[in-house]
Amino acid sequence: MITPQEYIENKYPIIPCYKNERRPIGKEWEEKETGKLERFSPGDNIGLHLINYIDLDIDNPVCHKFLKRIKTLGCAVYGRQSNPESHLLFRGSAEYEKYCMHRSFEPWYKKYRKEKTILEIRSGKGLQSIAPGSVIEDEEVRWDKYIEPKEYPGELRKDIDLVVFATMLSIIYPGKGERDDFCYAIACLLKKWGSWREELINTFIEELAEASEPIETRDKDDKRNNFGTRAYKGNTPKGLPTLIKQMNFPEDGIKDIFKVVGITIGKETEEQKEKKITNLKMYDWNDYLHLDIKEPEFIVAKLFKTKSINFISGPKGNGKTEWTLGLTDIISKGGDFLTYKVNEPYPVIYIDGEMDEYDLIERRIPYTQHEAPYPNYFNIIHYAQQIDQTIPDIKFEHGQQLIEQKVMEVRQKTGKSPVLVLDNLRSLSNYKENDSDDWRPIGVWLKNLRALDCVTIVIDHHGKGENAGPRGSSSKTDWANVSIFIKSVGKGRTPGKMRMEIKFDKARGLRPDETQEYECEYDFDGKWTRVDSQKTQSEELLLEAIYNIKRDEFNKCRTEEKKLDKDLEKERITKKIYNKLRKAVHKEHTSTQQEIADKIGISVGKYNQLYNSSYENYFARKTNEEYLAKKNSPLGDGVSEEEIKQYQELVDKWTKEREEKFPSKDFGLKYIFPDKYPGGDKLPTKDWLRSNDFYKNDFEAIKKAWITHCNINMEDYE
Question: In 3D, which of 617, 638, 620 has the Cα closest to residue 629?
């Protein structure tokens, strides 16, 4: 399988790439339909779009020593002549991860300087892999082993972490005479800080030694299979000092190697912390309801709750700080900001780790000219005013404690817990963005700030791609309540004002109608205005069109289903026939994605983008609006004015048709209620409306509401 046609016949999602390059042809290629032969020209490279596929991209050759088991688990293998097994292809999806060597490796082995990347886990929309049948740097990409890729049978991330861990240790593996001390030191660290079982350590060390020691230098019966046992017995324990002294390898480099498998050397492990908990509290539900648990209140209505963690992200220079300064100014005073309301003021601690100190003054002055906050209600911690012009890293306990002290000071002065702003994350910590373990101490600290009743607002740079969220590890926002994306907008901007788009990446505890994207403008004089974007308006119309089509299809299906329900109830059809007919009804009255797209005049790609990103929120908002309209209707019974109008039109039509068909007949049209309903007798029956294809709504509810509306006595009507 090396041609586009062969891939398409086997239903692979392929896209064309430039000849001898990895670059896809065309803009927004990830939005275009895959597997189309007409998109390919002779000589195009073949890119496999990694939706529902996982590509293990191996860059470092040492890695292959520890991938033998993984290669047997149902993957296809391919690569170039110089690295024929560089790609392992599985089905499924996984979070992207790039494993790189620590900088300490550079002076150790110069040959790896150009190969800092060990391997990548690549999967998902926007990622593709150059498949066999292509040419890269004049080397043909070939299958080393082709089978239909299978789902990975296990925990992929955990297994790859172990492979990378072994690879790094293998690279720094010592020569003869130092190997015993090296292996034993590794075993001791695994036991002490990782709490690995004795048997697991023995197996790992033996496999590491077998893969790392050249056969010609290996002792005849040297298996190195008892270091875990020795570590557990505690005989002459070794560890970090041994490796630092023996290998001349820096301490932070060794610690980074162990972080790959989730081991933090020098701190209490998660397992050790958990062992302190000796009992879990359990409550009967009735008792749990009576616990003193207070519902979180909104500090900023429809946005930020008490004890919440919130992220504001976006590209550099796009208005994140400006928007946050405007919001926090209102938080410190009380009042309105755009459509958000602050009922009572809360103190703010604004920590700035990047902005020029005078720039901060210039941005704040417009707000204070209108109205200054109460004393101690807007507090600044600026890096330039600190010793050595730096704020201690918030990844470490020392930096966290210094900030907590200031939180307590503000609480004592104002009697309220402050809103804490961290502007921005990258300038306040040197954590590794793509390392979830390195981020964890910050995440845990933000979570713990809830115990001080803090609301935290974290300003962060955005990742690549509009839907990427805050930059770096996806675990950042695991505990977040709200995550907002801010981007500047040039189109439609009022001269002299800054215009920006506000979108919600995450909104826990907020209703869909409270998280609609919008645009706003700032006049640099402390005044903010919400505006409707052309994009929002046009998308709103398209979403309405999709909603109307789907609602109409649902009504048609439901009408036919009710007939089938009645037939089934009266045993006119069997359950088996009922299911078949119901399926046929849905097929008849339900449009495909392409058909809906054609009806409203857009591409199927645009339809899918709208449906996947916005339709769920629009549907929830629309149905909620309709529900509230019916609930609050003056006509009663949850029936809208429009439904009453439709019903009256049906009655008019029925009356007119009967009079035209039987002009000489008197069917009781004595105008019993001439003052209430001119020209009408009793209302038509439900069955008659159904048989004449007039029945579209809930007859009983509409009938009752109509009678109430006309002030007709129900007994007289019946």
Answer: 638
User: What SS3 class is residue 689?
Assistant: helix
Give 199-251 pLDDT, tens digit per residue.
Answer: 888 889 888 988 887 655 555 555 566 777 877 777 555 678 777 776 667 78
Measure Cα distances from 539 to 485, 516, 518, 613, 615 in Å: 19, 12, 12, 11, 10
Nearest to 403 by CA among 379, 430, 435, 426: 379
391-422 per-position pLDDT tens digit: 999 988 888 989 998 998 998 899 899 999 99
Which of 137-151, 167-181, 621-635: highest mean pLDDT?
137-151
Cα separation values, 221 from 34, 210, 224, 261, 440, Å: 56, 12, 9, 30, 43
- Do 505 and 477 meet the contact criterion of CB atoms below 8 Å apart? yes
Domain boundaries, the chain: 4-155, 172-275, 307-531, 537-631, 641-717
**pLDDT for 703 beyond 70:** no
What span, in angstroms and rounded, lies between the C-alpha atoms of 563 and 580?
Answer: 14
Give the count of alpha carbons within 13 A of 194, CB side only: 23
Residue 321: CB atoms within 10 Å: 23
Q: Is the dihedral of CA 452, 457, 462, 466 positive or negative?
A: positive
For position 421, what pLDDT does the model report?
96
Check if the beta carbon of residue 341 is closer than 8 Å to that of residue 333. Answer: no
The number of beta carbons lying within 10 Å of the beta carbon of residue 492 is 13
Task: Say how far apart CA 420 and CA 153 lie, in whole Å.
Answer: 44
Confirm if 432 and 468 have CB atoms less than 8 A apart: no
Is 307-531 a domain of CATH 3.40.50.1240? no
Asked if the model's pLDDT at residue 109 lies above 60, the reply is no
**681 falls in which pLDDT band (50, 70, 90)?**
very low
Backbone CA torsion sign across 267, 270, 271, 275:
positive
Omega within 30 of 0 (cis) for the link into 424: yes
Judged by average pLDDT, the poorest of 229-238, 296-305, 478-487, 654-663 is 654-663
pTM (predicted TM-score): 0.45
d(Cα 565, Cα 692) in Å, to the nearest integer? Answer: 19
- DSSP-derived 3-state class of residue 198: helix
Give the CA distances from residue 74 to residues 147, 149, 402, 406, 603, in Å, rounded to whole numbers and listed in that order: 7, 6, 52, 56, 37
**Cα atoms in the 13 Å half-sphere on the side-chain side of 362:** 6
- Per DSSP, the three-state class of 444 is helix
Q: Which helix (H) or strand (E) holds 372?
A: none
294 by Cβ neighbours in 10 Å (0-12 / 13-18 / 19+) ranks as exposed
Q: At what angle do helices 251-259 and 156-171 cross, to 10 degrees?
A: 150
pLDDT of residue 688: 45
Q: Give the tokens for residue 324.
A: 């946050």
Q: Residue 292 has which token pair?
A: 């003193």
The alpha-carbon radius of gyration of the chain (Å, integer) is 34
Average pLDDT over the chain, rounded to an integer: 81
Token look-up 């002549």 returns 81
Alpha helices in 570-640 (DSSP H): 575-589, 593-600, 604-610, 616-631
Give 132's strand partners.
134
pLDDT of residue 665: 47
